[in-house]
Specification:
heterodimer; A: 114 residues; alpha+beta; B: 900 residues; 7-stranded mixed sheet; 6-stranded mixed β-barrel
Chain lengths: 114, 900
């Protein structure tokens, strides 16, 4: 379990937005697959935890949803990025990059200390 | 922004209900199916694939739960649960719920009705610019001018307070008072006769200063409003009409502007129509036609309006923002002092300084409304008591329900429901109830307010009674207060349960003695007692008023008035017109007799003077007499018997000796033990011979005992012939005769309008005015309160029987008689009543003091009325208790014991 990180909601939301941005409209399963794919076992996501995040994003207006048919003919709800979702993604991305940068710097300082 | 959007979505989610629930289930279902599909494709067996997929997805139910929490707003969701639960629990007991809602509806409806009226009367400002700046000018002093028209009140200090000013005083205020930005003057012209093609009609006219409409900020709806230029000597005579008048007689004709109409016979051009909401500055009477003050000499020729001794103007001043009121008043007083006539011309002679007092003018002048205000406050108090009784009733109901649900409450508390949640739950029930009551009450009020206003003021009273935000807010606040009053106590009381004890009880939880419930009923009884005594006193007052012997027969008499002087007839010519109208009316079919007089009996009008009896021993003061000028057949028409001597005849005219007919009281007062026929009275008209004595009759008011009254033959006082009121005794419905009467008058001169047409009986009813309204309403409300108290008592008794079933069963099994069981119960009920009456007695005494001025020939603590109220309450209580008590006595011992 050491190498698999628990994912908190905010991060998961960013991943969802990023996924939809990269791949276009996707159903919940597709989003989950994509996240697993990118994270390559470094991350464990219970697929169920996606749904509250999707709901929150939809309530905020970042994504919209409608029912459609999946590749293998299953009825599924498809989520797509909205205009305001795209804006949200950009600003979240910037925010995240800055945070990551700061954290990375702290790591560097720590390394020097050792 | 994002947060706000999310909030609305969640709010919507809360209200959307369970639709989304199924959608989520389907979505998760398809997700897992897709996971299974993939795994099967990779070679797992369907069962293995499903297991793996489930594992990877995580807890389906916990996902749903998390989703649910985010979908709506938790607080709203729980409120919704509470409301749903409350709704279900009320639906379980439809009878009790209906009674509770209805009693609240009556309570809240009554309060909203009275408030709606008070709102229209006291709170709504005139629809003019910055109404809050307006002040009414009044003066306080001890002398009246030679002639005035307006309001006069007596101050507690024994001075007089009036709002009439001379033209000179108005000019001073207008031109020399720096604290006022606008000073406008008005003077009413009642019964202005208007001829605009067709037959003439009567309108409420008003003389206004040229700056009125600009000063108040009232623009014309059509054409233009009157301006300063119209209010100049020599200006073209102009008038504006109200929207109501435009809609009525002018039928919304846009061509009305520019038309020349005859006002009291003189031509005026209508230059504009006023906006719809504006009814004038007299809160009670809507003004139809406005003419400039400069029209005074023409429209009121008999009043020397520019004399310093004639005060006919009412003045409204707009106070400059930030001005010091006291300074403004003293400046105005100084200006006023300079315009006063020399002291000698005033009644009393001596001169004291007049003070000026500014009154709030934001609602204009409210003459007749003021008189009814105390009645309205009495009614407001009554309505408040009814609502309290209803609340006490519902509190009792809630208490009983709470007791019955002790076990349920105990279970909920045992499994962890917080007390606050339970209290909130109970309050939600009360709130639901009172909101339902408020909704119905609001409907009742929207219809009742106008109805109520009709009881107090005549239909033509211009009151804006539309429901506004204030009335709505009042109803809402009232329903919340009612919910708190009726719900909070029981909620706290019933959640004080001890789960262990209640759950341990083998059967129904041990019967609590319901001491609280009984005191609630006592409270209701006390309040109902106050209402009953009040209603009793009002009814007795009304009965006493109806029992007053009017002396004449008011049934089947049509009264109406005409004024020939408005068509230019003077003195002898006018008398001639009236003779012709009388002759014409008498010839109509269905007319038994007709007469006229200078005013109508019981209309509130009166005319009094001083009479002396020559040859009376010195020391006997001159007597104050009431007088009336009547036509020949007045006494016969009104059914007023002539007891001695003769009635008037056609020979009593200007050429013959002046004769009068007096009433019994005058005969008794002025000529005790003597025959008054042939004796002489001296009044301002000189010597007059008494030729007859008529029965005492009600003169201007039923509330006043007969006073010495003198009737004169109108033909002997032609100078005084102005407006004349006709009385027509008919065989059938008097009002059915009105069209024929109008035709007669129009046939003689169509410039003379028929005014004030009504029946004498209606006039009598109107003279009872507020008393009649108060009585019927107070009695109705008291009845409701008593009914509610009965229901409350019934509830408490029935509950006790239910709780004591097993005990009663055992006692009956052991050989107790029914009476031994029922007796103490009835005794308990009577005790509750006695406690309630004792509680209410001080309130009854206090209320009596307030009501005194509304009562007629009955003491506020009239023993018969109080006794009657107590007996009624006892009867109601016993009947409310007897059913449950009988049920107790009929309990079959075997059945109850088996039940255990």
């Amino acid at each position: 379990m050491q190498n698999k990180n628990d994912v908190w909601q905010g991060t998961l939301a960013l991943m969802v937005l990023k996924t939809l941005d990269a791949m276009g409209p996707q159903h919940g399963y597709g989003i989950a697959l994509r996240i697993e794919q990118v994270a390559k076992d470094r991350l464990s996501v219970n697929h169920g935890t996606l749904y509250p995040v999707l709901l929150k994003l939809e309530q905020e207006g970042s994504i919209a949803s409608e029912w459609g048919v999946s590749d293998n003919n299953r009825k599924a709800k498809f989520y797509r990025l909205t205009k305001s979702g795209r804006k949200e993604l950009a600003s979240e991305q910037r925010h995240w990059d800055r945070t990551a940068e700061i954290i990375a710097q702290f790591g560097a300082v720590g390394d020097e200390g050792q | 922004m994002k947060a706000l959007r999310r909030f609305w979505r969640r709010l919507a989610g809360s209200l959307a209900g369970s639709r989304r629930e199924g959608e989520l289930a389907r979505e998760i279902e398809s997700h897992i199916q897709m996971m299974v599909d993939d795994r099967v494709r990779r070679g797992l067996s369907p069962a293995q694939a499903l297991r793996a997929a489930r594992l990877e997805f995580g807890g389906v139910e916990s996902t749903k739960e998390q989703y649910r929490d985010q979908r709506g707003l938790p607080s709203i969701d729980s409120i919704r649960q509470d409301v749903t639960f409350a709704w279900r629990s009320w639906r379980r007991t439809p009878g009790a719920t209906a009674i509770a809602v209805l009693s609240l509806a009556v309570g809240i409806g009554a309060n909203t009705t009275v408030f709606g009226l008070l709102n229209g009367v006291l709170l709504k400002p005139l629809p003019v610019r910055d109404a809050h700046q307006l002040r009414l000018m009044t003066w306080v002093g001890s002398e009246l001018p030679f002639e005035m028209s307006g309001r006069v009140d007596n101050t507690p200090a024994g001075e007089m307070r009036a709002d009439a000013f001379s033209a000179a005083a108005y000019q001073q205020f207008r031109d020399h008072a720096p604290d006022f930005t606008n000073v406008v003057a008005v003077s009413t012209l009642s019964r202005l006769s208007v001829l605009a093609g067709g037959d003439a009609f009567v309108a409420n006219g008003m003389l206004v200063s040229g700056n009125l409409f600009a000063g108040l900020g009232v623009p014309a709806r059509l054409g233009r409003a009157l301006a300063l230029g119209d209010d100049q000597p020599g200006a073209i005579p102009a008038a504006v009409i109200s929207h109501q008048c435009w809609r009525g007689p002018f039928a919304l004709d846009p061509g009305a502007v520019g038309r020349v109409v005859l006002l009291n016979g003189s031509p005026y051009t209508i230059v504009g129509v006023l906006p719809e909401g504006f009814g004038g500055v007299f809160g009670n009477t809507a003004t139809d036609v406005y003419v400039p003050l400069s029209a005074q000499p023409q429209l009121r020729p008999r009043t020397p309006w520019d004399s310093p001794d004639v005060w006919t103007l009412q003045i409204i001043a707009r106070l400059r923002a930030g001005a010091d009121v006291h300074r403004a008043e003293s400046v105005a007083a100084a200006l006023f002092g300079g315009t006063l006539p020399p002291a000698s011309s005033l009644e009393g002679g001596s001169r004291t300084a007049h003070r000026i007092v500014l009154e709030d003018g934001s609602r204009g002048f409210q003459y007749s409304i003021r008189r009814s205000l105390t009645s309205l406050f009495v009614l407001a108090g009554t309505a408040g008591i009814v609502l309290l009784v209803a609340c006490a009733n519902i509190a009792g109901l809630q208490l009983v329900r709470g007791m019955a649900r002790r076990r349920e409450i105990a279970v909920r508390m045992a499994i962890g429901a917080g007390r606050w949640r339970l209290v909130r739950h109970a309050l939600t029930e009360s709130l639901l109830l009172s909101l339902a009551g408020a909704a119905i009450g609001f409907l009742l009020a929207s219809w009742g307010t106008t109805l109520l206003s009709r009881l107090f003021w005549p239909a033509e009273t211009a009151l804006d009674l539309d429901i506004d935000h204030r009335v709505f807010g009042f109803t809402l606040a009232l329903s919340i207060i009612a919910a708190m009053l009726s719900g909070l106590g029981p909620a706290i009381h019933t959640t004080r349960a001890m789960p262990v004890a209640d759950l341990a009880a083998r059967t129904a939880p041990a019967a609590p003695r319901l001491r609280v419930g009984r005191s609630l009923v006592s409270l209701q009884v006390g309040l109902s007692f106050v209402l009953l005594v009040g209603a009793g006193l009002f009814s007795r007052t009304l009965i006493n008023l109806y029992r007053v012997d009017t002396g004449f027969n008011p049934a089947s008499v049509l009264v109406f008035s005409i004024d020939a002087s408005t068509a230019g007839y003077r003195d002898k010519q006018a008398v001639d017109i009236y003779e012709r109208v009388l002759a014409g009316v008498e010839r109509l079919g269905g007319v038994r007799a007709a007469a006229h007089s200078n005013f109508v009996l019981l209309s509130g009008w009166m005319n009094s003077t001083i009479a002396r009896v020559p040859g009376r021993p010195a020391g006997l003061e001159p007597i104050r007499i009431l007088r009336m000028d009547v036509s020949d057949r007045f006494f016969g028409t009104m059914g007023l018997p002539v007891l001695r001597g003769r009635a008037f005849s056609t020979s009593d005219d200007e050429g013959t000796a002046k004769v009068v007919i007096v009433n019994e009281t005058l005969a008794r007062t002025a000529f005790p033990g003597e025959d008054p026929i042939g004796r002489v009275l001296t009044t301002t008209d000189g010597e007059q011979h008494i030729v007859g004595v008529v029965r005492d009759m009600a003169y201007h008011s039923l509330k006043v005992r007969p006073e010495p009254t003198v009737f004169s033959a109108y033909r002997q006082r032609p100078r005084n012939v102005g407006r004349v009121h006709f009385e027509v005794r008919t065989a059938a419905d008097p009002m059915a005769l009105l069209p024929a009467v109008r035709t007669v008058v129009a046939g003689i001169d169509r410039r003379i309008p028929v005014a004030d047409a009504k029946t004498q009986a209606l006039q009598l009813g109107e003279s009872l005015g507020p008393e009649r309204g108060l009585t019927s309403l107070a009695s109705g409300l008291a009845l409701v309160a008593v009914l509610l108290s009965c229901i409350g008592l019934y509830g408490v008794m029935a509950y006790q029987v239910a709780c004591r079933r097993s005990e009663i069963g055992i006692r009956m099994a052991l050989g107790s008689t029914a009476w031994r069981i029922v007796g103490p119960m009835l005794r308990g009920a009577v005790l509750v009543i006695v406690a309630g009456v004792a509680l209410g007695l001080p309130a009854v005494i206090a209320a009596g003091r307030v009501l005194r001025e509304h009562l007629f020939e009955i003491e506020p603590t009239d023993p018969a009325t109080v006794t009657m109220a107590v007996v009624l309450l006892l009867g109601a209580a016993v009947s409310g208790a007897v059913v449950p008590a009988r049920r107790a006595a009929r309990i079959d011992p075997a059945a109850t014991l088996r039940c255990e």
